[in-house]
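Reply to dn_fold:

You asked what the input looked like. This is it:
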Amino acid sequence: MFVQHKQLKVLNVPATKVARLNTSGCNVQMAFPGYPPQLCASYLVSLSSGNKVMVVVAFYLSESRQSIFFVPKCGEVSVEMAEATFDQGFVFAETMGFVLNETDYHLLSTADQQKLWVSLPICQKAAVNTETTTADNPSAQDTTAQKDELEEYRERSLKSLGRFLSSM
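and this is what came back:
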C-alpha cells in the first residue's frame, strides 16, 4: 500500500542511488486534492542505499509544475522485498491509468544516468518567477516565447476539438 508523502517536494538524491526507473509513455488527466484536474506524468523509482531500498511513485502535475510523491506505508524495505514492492508500485501507477515503460537506466553510462536524472521534472524545484528569469537570461526569453506559442496552439486545438465534438 502506497501513501502520499506530503513533505517531499522534489527527489533530491544523487543519480548513483537510482537502481531502477520507469516512466509513463504519455500523460494522463488526474485530479489530486488541492490541485485542479490536469495532465500528469508518472515515474516509478527504486532508490538503493546499501541493504535498504525505497520505492517511490511520483506524479508530475504539468500545469501546477509540482510533484506529488507516494511511498510504501512500511517505508524502506530490504533488498529481498524490493522487487515485490516495486511491483506493487507498478500496479499502483497502472491502476491510475498510466502505462509505465522501462528506461533501461541501469544500462546507461554514469554520465548519461546523471543527465537523465537531473532532467526529470520530479528532481527539479518548482518553477521560479519567469519575469526575473527572462530579464537575466536571453535564452529563457526564447523558451517563454516558445511556451506562449505552444499555449496558443493548444487553445486553438481545443477549440477545434470542441467544434468537432459538438458537430457529432
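Residues 138-166 form the longest helix (29 residues).
Hope that clears it up.
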